[in-house]
Amino acid sequence: MSLEEYKRKRDFGKTKEPAGEVKKGDGKIYVIQKHYASHLHWDLRLEKDGVLKSWAVPKEPPTKKGTRRLVITTEDHPIDYADFEGEIPEGEYGAGKVEIWDSGTYEEEKWREDKEIIVQLKGKRLNGRYCLIRFQKVENGWLFFRCDKNGE
Ligand code: MN
Known about the structure:
Layout: H1 4-8, E1 29-36, E2 40-48, E3 51-57, E4 68-78, E5 86-88, E6 96-112, E7 116-122, E8 127-134, E9 141-146
Antiparallel strand pairs: 1-2, 1-6, 2-3, 3-4, 4-9, 5-6, 6-7, 7-8, 8-9
Bound molecules: manganese (II) ion.
């Protein structure tokens, strides 16, 4: 795992985002940040192998069963980013306000790289079983939706 792309895109003399490093946590961080960039979106992040695996969610993340969002993989972020809130300055990558929209922990049920991820999210807004299924028609695309087991 590497934060090369994350670091290449940012000037840490200008943005207050954490420079961060790859580090081992307990592997359970779940966070969604609402990002008022040129296009409003949400950023879903799950701690895995010392970084935050990240996806951009174009509309409000699905709290109920039945809504599927096409989300796009973005660069790995440092663990320290999970607490970041603030204003990314004009002219910098991702300029605009970032606020934490939901946070908590998650339990991994299945993690098949670039194929299928199933997790139990334990946040305040998103709480339950969620699936990320690779959507091959779109580059870096995944479908993100609530996927309770039948009968729940
Ligand atoms: Mn973003």
